[in-house]
Amino acid sequence: MMQFTVEHTPANIVKIFPKASDLFKEHRIDFCCGGNRPLKETFVEKDLDEKLILSKLNTSFETWNKEDHEVVDWDSKPLSELVDHIRHHHHAYLMEELPALGQFVTKIFRKHGPNHPHLMDLYRIYSKFSMEMEEHTMKEENDVFPLIKEYEANPSKDLLEKIREANGELEDEHNEVGELLKLMRDITNDFQPPANTCGSYQITYARLAEMEENTFQHIHLENNVLFAKL
């Protein structure tokens, strides 16, 4: 069985071993927007324990390999199939979850804001994140994804250049929303609600953590698979 080393990138590790994303989030290791840098660079930059993290990663991978898991090799899938997967599993989730979760964020801010001042920052950051993701998703579905499907059916150099230019803008937007997610994780203490908080408070933090996971996987598929294939 292969062993991951400091030369591997987080993006490629997550392609092989999706559950590695949990460990990377725990140690604030970027596997989506900046996921193409070798681990050794992140270890040095963040002053992380290289041996400890690699040991956890490879031990977890060994255990996971003994279980029955089906991993989709998205690198081998047609562009249209990958685009449809992103639309149905990530865009659809966001369009349903963003407004619903926004109501919870607003509710706990109004109820608990006086005693928990960080909730004002959470409210502001979430509102910005929600607006940007809605606009970003519509741009992909209305403009970029149709171009990708057109290119798959009738490839041309001009069309590819047009897609690459659009993808560059999308990657910049990914970086921006990635930073907003990191800010939300910071101000919520890794989405851990304070002791003795109400059910709404706890649900809000749990759903924020779930949305972060979904969005990171979404960005990972676009940056490191879809855009890379183009």
TrEMBL record:
<dbReference type="Pfam" id="PF01814">
    <property type="entry name" value="Hemerythrin"/>
</dbReference>
<keyword id="KW-0175">Coiled coil</keyword>
<dbReference type="InterPro" id="IPR019903">
    <property type="entry name" value="RIC_family"/>
</dbReference>
<feature type="domain" description="Hemerythrin-like">
    <location>
        <begin position="88"/>
        <end position="230"/>
    </location>
</feature>
<protein>
    <submittedName>
        <fullName>Iron-sulfur cluster repair di-iron protein</fullName>
    </submittedName>
</protein>
<feature type="coiled-coil region">
    <location>
        <begin position="156"/>
        <end position="183"/>
    </location>
</feature>
<keyword id="KW-0479">Metal-binding</keyword>
<dbReference type="Pfam" id="PF04405">
    <property type="entry name" value="ScdA_N"/>
</dbReference>
<dbReference type="GO" id="GO:0005737">
    <property type="term" value="C:cytoplasm"/>
</dbReference>
<dbReference type="GO" id="GO:0046872">
    <property type="term" value="F:metal ion binding"/>
</dbReference>
<keyword id="KW-0963">Cytoplasm</keyword>
<dbReference type="InterPro" id="IPR012312">
    <property type="entry name" value="Hemerythrin-like"/>
</dbReference>
<keyword id="KW-0408">Iron</keyword>
